[in-house]
Structures are given as C-alpha cells and as structure tokens.
Amino acid sequence: MKQISRFSHLGELSDKDYFRIALSVDCVIFGFEDDELKVLVIKCNIKEYKGKWSLLGDLVRPDEDLEGASYRILKERTGLDDVYLEQVQTFGKVNRHPAGRVITIANFSLVNIKDHQLKLSDNELHWHPVNDISEMAFDHKEILSTCLERLREKVADHPVVFNLLPKKFSLRELQSLYESILNIKLDRRNFRKKFFMMDWLVDLDELEQDVPHRPGKLYKFNQAKFGRKPKKVS
Amino acid sequence: MKQISRFSHLGELSDKDYFRIALSVDCVIFGFEDDELKVLVIKCNIKEYKGKWSLLGDLVRPDEDLEGASYRILKERTGLDDVYLEQVQTFGKVNRHPAGRVITIANFSLVNIKDHQLKLSDNELHWHPVNDISEMAFDHKEILSTCLERLREKVADHPVVFNLLPKKFSLRELQSLYESILNIKLDRRNFRKKFFMMDWLVDLDELEQDVPHRPGKLYKFNQAKFGRKPKKVS
DNA sequence: CCAAAAGTGTTTTCGTTACACCCATGC
DNA sequence: GCATGGGTGTAACGAAAACACTTTTGG
Which among A175, B9, B72, B169 is most buried, taking Cβ atoms within 10 Å? Predict the structure, then answer.
C-alpha cells in the first residue's frame, strides 16, 4: 500500500502505526414474530464475554466496501440476499474490544423471519425479543439501542416496515408491528385511516385463513408508488 | 496487538491483511457569516486533487477515540475547544482515496466564525459559502451534502443553531440563519411566534447597535432550559 | 350464543400557514 | 421625509387524537 500522502504532515507516528486499527461492521438484524420485535444474536465465544449475546458482525476486508461487508454477513447468516440495510453509527471507543483496537460500523437491517428457516440450529444463532435482552457482549447493547432508536425515527415517515412482514399481511399484523417497534398502543381507526390516506397499501381482495375470529382483508405494500427497495450492491 | 479472536474463524486472510485499512475522521465545520452558511475548507495538496477544496480531516490515532480525533482537528484548525460536534456517517468506498484504503467517519460541527479569527491566513484555510461550492477533492462533496442534509433535519427540532451565532443576537439574524440553512424564506411573524412559544430565547433587554435602521432586541439562547451542550470528552 | 377481532365516521383539538399595517431609527 | 427593517394578531386550514357501535367468523 502506498503512503497516504494527504496525511504525511503527521510525522510523529509512522504509517504502520495508523494501520493498527481494525474495522468491523455489526448488523442489528430485526425480525417480527409472535407480535414481538426481535433481533438476531449469537452466543459470544471470546472469553471476556463468554455466553453473552452478541450482534452479527465481521471484519471488513480490504477489498470490500462497507455495504458489501454488511450484505456478506447477512447472506452468510440468514441466507438472504435482498435485504433492507441502513448504516446507523460508528462506534470507536478505544477499549470497546478486549482484543485490540476495533472500530465498528453499526447497521440495522429488516428481514422477514419466515423467509429464513435457515442456519438457526447449527451455531447458537437466536431470535431474541428486543425488549427483553439484558446483557450483551462488548458495547452491543448500546449499539442495539441506537439502532432501535433510529428504526423508530425511520418508520415514522418511511415505508420500511414492510420488509419485516410477509408479502401478504392484514392490517392487524401491520398495526401490531408498529406497536412493537414504537412500544405504544395505537388507535385502530386512526391507524387504518392514515394508511389508506397515505396510499401505501394495495388491497388484495383476499382474506386471512385459519384465524379463530372474523378474517381480515389482506394487503401488500404498494411498491409501485416508491422506487425499488435498496439492492445488494454487487 | 493481540489477535482478534472474535474473528479468528476467518482463516482466509491473515490478521495483517485486516489491518491494511486506515481510518480517518472528516469534519464539516459550518459557520455563519454575511447571511450565508459557510463551511471551512482547505486547499488540497495531493496531486490527484491538486487545488481542489477539501474538508478538514486526519487519520485517527490508535489511542484516541473518534470524538477525540474530531475535537483534536477542530482545536488544531480553529483553536476552538467547546464546539458542537455530531457524527453523521461513515464513508468507505474501496477507491475513495487514491493513496489506499481509507475509511472516513464524517462529522459536522457548528462554530461561531467570529470566535475564531485564527489560523486562517497561514495555510489555505477558507470559509466557503455552502451553496456555492462546485468541486471538491475525494468524495468530500458527497460528505458535505450528507452533513448538510443532516443539519437540516437536526435544526427542525433541536436547538443547535445557537452554536453558529454570537452570544447575543437579534431575531433577524436568527431567522436569516434558518433561512440560509434550509434554503427557504420564512414568514417573519410566524417565525417569531414559534420561537417565543418554544421558550428557547431569553430577552436580554438590549438593543442592536450600529444598524442603519430601527434596532432590534437582542436575545440569548435559553441554555438553562436544556442540558449543557456536548462537551469535549477529555 | 359467545368470544374475538373486523370494519367504519364524526368531532375536537392543536399546530401551521397566510396575511397587512403601524413604528422606530438612520440618513 | 424616506428607506429599512422591527414589531404585532387573527382567521383559515389541515393533521392528529379521541371516541363506540355493528358485523363477521370460529368454536
């Protein structure tokens, strides 16, 4: 690697020293199941945090960009390809990783848990309810909180929650999802009114099956009204 | 540095490879002068971007955290210490820096230009109007746009603009500042009403001096109503 | 028939917008 | 006295919130 000449006025440290920082990405992968918002975590196997839950992450390779690294992790862990991903914040406290200086770029992503029956049993991968996760390894609890906060802001005016749902869903499911994310109760009539007004939904003229009560209508996301969702880069 | 054992399952690349990424911070330093929003830039001296404007940035040292690195740059370049700073986004395209793999964490900060008569003439440091900056080095134009967009979102409901103004200011100056940031015209009566309702201002019972028209009242930011502003970490 | 959730409108409230005239100062 | 911006209030509008009853299905 060539010298970084933009920074060469800094004589006190050699280039070699500047490269002693490692870079990782961590993905807060949200899912929705049993009327709860969940996050995909894995049992940590480094001795300082043995047995604690950890987010899914990996070091960034020198030849891949930050999005690419995140999509690679998502693919490796969930088998999913076409996933909503958003960069949130970079965490870089000097001692956040016991093994050395590692700076991590936190992302959140949204997946439909049902699309992904995969790779769960082998490692200690686990969908954990977001509101009920006590301790985590590293600074991952803080990263999770930050990403959850960002998700809450995002859903307020962007149609991203559909990434957490199956193609067809009822208004009850949709409302329950919002309630889980925002951790508040919503008024059913106002909720429905608002969604119909925003024109985010397409009525499929189908009804729910196998519910122990009056079945509700099924809808899909009005994708046509928006651009295509963010795509995997390469 | 010890081995990063959390990632040791990755056998394909040696640890040495992973440390071939350098990390920098870049600061989009906003100021307000002559009814314009400005950004502090410096003439780039690397050959690929010779003479283009560049943001102020530097490599992160192995023993300083991300905030610390940003505050160091702000101190070195403006002499200012107690500055508003906010992390915005991390940019990491593989080829964003011609000299090698450099990932940069972009921040914006807000300073009062008048507090800072310093260090301007020596290097090619320069306050440039934000709306009138054509080409920049690296991906700095994109970084600037992203930070400006974030600033616009931020000012909509957080009292941060006061960092761009002197201690005492008139409502005209405040409104002109919002108009510069948002790039729109605002209604004077509604603007005043809103600020008084929000209780963000303290009436100083003083008047402007040396204005060629009826002097306006001076106000200061109602700091007491909010916590202290973000402080330098160390 | 009972339980559970679906479906449906109206009223009130509150914040936002639009808008015009007189006043104080410097020149 | 004229130019410049300071200072002020009200009406219209639109978005969000509060609120209850009837309908449909499964069991």
Answer: B169
- Final residue in a domain of this structure, among B129, B154, B179: B154
Domain assignment present for A207: yes
- The reply to whether A192 Cβ lies less than 7 angstroms from strand C is yes
B18/A94 CB distance under 8 A: no
Beta strands in chain A (DSSP E): 22-33, 36-43, 53-54, 56-59, 84-91, 102-110, 125-129, 169-170, 201-207, 217-221
Cβ B56 vs Cβ B73: under 8 Å = yes
Tell me, yes or no, whether A145 and A84 share the same domain. Answer: yes
| A144 and A179 share one domain | no
What is residue A229's predicted lDDT score, i.e. its pLDDT?
56
Tell me how crowded residue B118 is: count the other CB atoms within 10 A of its CB.
Answer: 12
Strand C closer than 7 A to residue A229 Cβ: no
Residue-range definition of the domain harbouring residue B77: 20-154
- Residues from B contacting A (CB-CB < 8 Å) are 1-7, 10, 13, 17-24, 44-46, 54, 58-66, 87, 89-90, 92-94, 97, 99-103, 105
Per-residue pLDDT tens digits for A204-217:
999 999 999 999 99
| pLDDT > 70? residue B9 | no
Per-residue pLDDT tens for A70-102?
A: 999 999 988 888 899 999 999 999 999 999 999
Q: What value, to the nearest 5°, has the Cα angle with vertex A121 and ends B18 and A30?
A: 65
Confidence class of residue B102 from pLDDT cuts 50, 70 and 90?
Answer: very high
In a domain, B4, yes or no: no
Instruction: Inspect the interface and report whether the beta carbons of B18 and A22 lie closer than 8 Å.
Output: yes
CB-based contact B28:B147 (threshold 8 Å):
yes
Number of domains in chain A: 2
Contact B150, B62 (CB under 8 A): no
Write out chain B residues lying below 8 Å of A7, CB-based. Answer: 24, 58-59
Could you tell me if residue A13 is inside a domain? no
pLDDT for A90-143, tens place per residue?
Answer: 999 999 999 999 999 999 999 999 987 666 566 788 999 999 998 999 999 999
Residues with CB under 7 A from strand D: A 187-190, 194, 211-215; B 170-172, 188-190, 192-193, 212-217
